[in-house]
Amino acid sequence: MLLFIPRSLCALKRVAAKAEHARFGATQGIRIALASGVYRAEATDGRRAMIVQGLIPGEDPPWPGFKDLPDDACEAIILPRDLERACKVGEDFLQSRFGLFGIATMGNDVHLGLGSELVTARTVEGRFPNISQVIPMKRPLFTFSFDPKVLAETLLAMAELLPEKARSVQCFYYGDGQPIGFCARNIDDGLFIDALVVPLTKSDVSATFFWLIHERLMELTPPPADDASVS
Predict the structure, then answer these.
(1) Which of 90, 105, 178, 203 is most buried (most C-beta within 10 Å)?
(2) What is the pTM of this model?
(3) Could you give phi then psi for residue 217, rounded to 5 degrees?
């Protein structure tokens, strides 16, 4: 496999498992797959999962540092720290122009880099769950849009007000154009916590468009052969 992917995919390290899973030892890595001109990156820690998909770039950046022939593999599981190393290599003008780095597989080795620079690592061994099995394939009952940083900061603030072992937060949807509510109770000191986040405005047309794009990408990128699910 020879593939160029955005450096921003390193963000999936936040979702990858921090410790080895009993059944799926490869969840400490990020699965990168290629099929039908679409790349797919997956990460999970067993309680959450993230999939990023996109079309392969129309123009490959120069990578003279990789001089071998890649194998015909269609996927690789790579540790986040190796992806982070790859994000830092390459001449500055190539990084700013393309925003990509290359992945080339050769057996159990994976080469990453850009321009004249090259990083070599080993692929992650073990099983990786079939995330597609836990993704609902029917249309959602409703949708809303929000700024992820605003939502994350709100939930992090609530987390700091809750005991570490009891951080359950309820979410309330009041309807289109209404704030999204969150409620929690600190069982240690009796605090009641309420929060509101104002969603971004959107149209029904945009929601339908994004759902159709999601369906199409799921068709183009078949899941791995392993039928295991996230648990």
Answers:
(1) 90
(2) 0.81
(3) -65, -35
